[in-house]
Design a protein that fits this description.
- The protein has 385 residues and is an alpha/beta fold.
- It has 14 helices and 17 strands.
Length: 385
């Protein structure tokens, strides 16, 4: 397994202006939260982390949430200064921050730019105001256009937006309109996610009461295939199941996860993976603050066996449309051949037409066109094997 220090850094800012109806992320409504104490705790965790696991040059940073852009400009400036003080960010590193439309005024964007952020991912979800209200978003379509315009004026050109499909009351036509409007923005990257009804969300409660009018499975599949057709026709590379990019604008940070490579995870509820261990941090804001004052704020740390790491390699690696290579597998697992470990599964998935061979170094496998919409079935074949 890869034992080098992580070259990717994830930091979690758990605050939001409100909680969306579908969201089960570790996030909390901003009002009344001890934000400055939280930033103190983040700095303390960074300090302890780099003493325990000294970093290599950091090639990607991703600040997620929550909504990191609810920080005020002075808080943003302080936070980004702390990141650079503790982690050696490589020249040319990708430095992404998630943002909610309507939370990125010019002053805040200037603080982000000065602090090293060079990529912004906006949670747009839809270009239909009625649908945005129905899913609990507090921005509207005008906020999207204004936020993208502000970002471009501040000097950001590496911009991405998230759109969702399979939403309650959403039709194929509504989605098609949203995608058309998204493409008119001429951004280099789009992420397109299907709704998952997660426990402990308002949508789950409505679903349990049979009060959530979700599209049919056939309509949801039609939505997904429409997305693929529209984005690829517009010149975007479908490089991962849910992600499309112009050449050179693929998310380098998320590719770390999909390649099963190590990464630091800092902040409340953050996950990390390094030196053969995965960790999850304490989730609550105040419990995280209290614990980080004294030690690494871990909720749990678990060793990852070689077998589990191999399964993870296949499940996340096959999300990439380039697939997995025998050379990369051997590099992570002491020269072992991918076919020797997963031969029966690979042969069955090839026979079923869900995988195809590639010319990758050492031989490789990727989802077939038929396998792309059935990805979860393919990934599940490698669990517990």
């Amino acid at each position: 397994m890869l034992m080098h220090a992580p070259r990717a850094l994830y930091i979690h800012i758990p605050f939001c202006t409100n909680k969306c109806h579908y969201c089960d992320f570790n996030s909390y409504v901003l009002k009344g939260q001890p934000v400055d104490d939280y930033l103190d705790a983040l700095e303390r965790e960074m300090e302890i982390t780099v003493s325990v696991l000294p970093p290599d040059d950091i090639r990607t940073v991703f600040v997620g949430g929550g909504t990191p852009t609810v920080l005020t400009p002075p808080q943003m400036e302080r936070f980004l200064k702390a990141v650079r003080a503790h982690f050696p960010i490589a020249d040319g590193a990708e430095f992404t921050m998630e943002a909610n439309p309507g939370t990125t005024d010019p002053e805040k964007l200037a603080a982000m730019r000065a602090g090293g952020v060079n990529r912004i991912s906006f949670g747009v979800q839809s270009f239909d105001n009625g649908l945005l209200e129905r899913i609990g978003r507090i921005h509207n379509v005008d906020d999207v256009y204004r936020s993208i315009g502000n970002a471009r004026e501040a000097g950001f050109d590496n911009l991405s937006i998230d759109l969702m499909f399979g939403l309650p009351g959403q039709t194929v036509g509504l989605l098609s309109d949203s995608v058309n409007r998204a493409l008119e923005l001429e951004l280099p990257h789009y992420s397109l996610y299907g709704l998952k009804v997660e426990e402990n969300t308002l949508f789950h409660a409505l679903y349990e009461r049979n009060e959530l009018p979700l599209p049919s499975e056939d309509d949801e599949l039609a939505m997904y295939m429409l997305l693929i057709d529209k984005l690829t026709a517009a010149g975007f590379r479908h490089y991962e199941i849910s992600n499309f990019a112009k050449p050179g604008y693929e998310s380098r940070h998320n590719t770390t996860y999909w390649r099963n490579e190590p990464y630091y995870g800092i902040g409340a509820g953050a996950h990390g993976y390094a030196k053969g261990e995965r960790h999850i941090n304490v989730k609550g804001v105040q419990p995280y603050i209290d614990k980080a004052r004294m030690q690494l704020p871990r909720l749990e740390t678990n060793p990852v066996s070689e077998e589990e790491a191999m399964e993870d390699f296949m499940m996340v690696g096959l999300r990439l449309l380039d697939g997995v290579s025998g050379e990369a597998f051997a590099g992570q697992f002491a020269g072992q051949a991918i076919e020797d470990v997963f031969g029966p599964q690979l042969r069955k998935l090839l026979a079923d037409g869900l995988l195809e061979r590639t010319g990758a170094p050492g031989g490789g496998y990727r989802l077939s066109k038929r396998g792309i919409p059935l990805g979860n079935e393919v990934f599940g074949a490698f669990i517990g094997e």
